[in-house]
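call fold target=tetrahydrofolate synthase
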Amino acid sequence: MTAVEASEAGYEIEKLLALHPKGFDLSLDRITRLLAALGNPQDRLPPIIHVAGTNGKGSVTAFSRAVLEAAGLSVHVHTSPHLVNWHERYRLGVKGGKGRLVSDPVLADAVRRVAEANGGEKITVFEILTAVTFVLFAEHPADVAIIEVGLGGRFDATNVITRPAVSVIMPISLDHQAYLGDRVELIAAEKAGIMKRGCSVVIGQQEEEGVRDVLTSTAERLGCPMSVYGQDFMAHEEFGRLVYQDERGLSDLPLPKLPGRHQYANAAAAIRAVRAAGFDVPDAAIERGVAGVEWPGRLQRLAGGKLGHYGPQDAEIWVDGGHNPGAGQVIAEAMANFEERESRPLFLIIGMISTKDQLGYFRAFLDLAEQVFTVPIRGSDAGLDPVALAQDAASVGFEASAVSSVAEALTVIANLVDEDPMPPRILIGGSLYLVGDVLADNGTPPK
């Protein structure tokens, strides 16, 4: 049995999955009804940092939490999806220390109570789990809650929040087109739906001018105090340090613990969000938070664990759950930066689900990777057949092979580079579901 199946909370959630339809049904009617039956716990939360975006929302959540906790504040955090265990979605704040994942008995009890309050009415499991977030966060005191949007924004179940301390919109690109629209401007309009009249808004780095225009015009229409990356705040590397700038001046900070240049803008958005939410944290706390931030499954290096034994000796093995072309571009840029510092042959081990743009993801790595190995995904019914995925990789110019597992791919790579004096760099990614499988198999689930 997996860790999820073995837990009491996991058992309760699996029962709900069998009872209610899978997937998303974007509407606020069901969650509003359920929360009313529960006494509207969403109205009894501490100040809320509400985060949306296609890419980077998990990172800005992690940075915000790290900075606030470094300042001694207790921070509740809701994220989705989880990688290995359902409990990862709910981190409860601890005064003066780092928050902890909710315990199994507490989560199981909350799930049972919310399901009972629903009374068997039609609903999605994500809506039930979102209601669980509000119940847990209302019943456990904390100084601040960071709540990540699940899908979109306007009709996401988390969008029953009426007065966030700040709404944060991170980079937007094409993803979930079936639900959100087939143009980035349409997707931006959906994500802008988390903005509330008169409430502060932070807009992270946006590559598309049209996206930025949609977001800023929405904020202006709603009378939201607005901060825009590149205009009101920014960050860059200088002499091996991170320089953050806003109207208060310059802050000389350590480079983020999370690798990749894209994390400079994510760290900047978090600092600005914390300040816009009304938390005047000292510079020392910002330094500690940026230097100590952790975010599992996002450019995470596998150090130790079971899977490393299958791969080449001294190989660098990275996992990342980015799964759309925008994420592929920033991950590929990070791999290119690694290559500049230390040249190693790069191999990709990729698994994806059918709703993603496989070709766009693969194109980001052209001229970087030596070869692609495609693998199945256990954690999703929508996982692509590795043979078809290998054909997609080949169609954009890669040498690609389908294999049965990550362990087999690592073994094949070990045989390929047996005579090579430089150990390879290996990226395992394409799906958060795959990353969850890898961390479970490796024996290193998030904590």
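return ok
The first strand starts at residue 48 and ends at 52. Residues 1-5, 176-181 have pLDDT under 50 and may be disordered.
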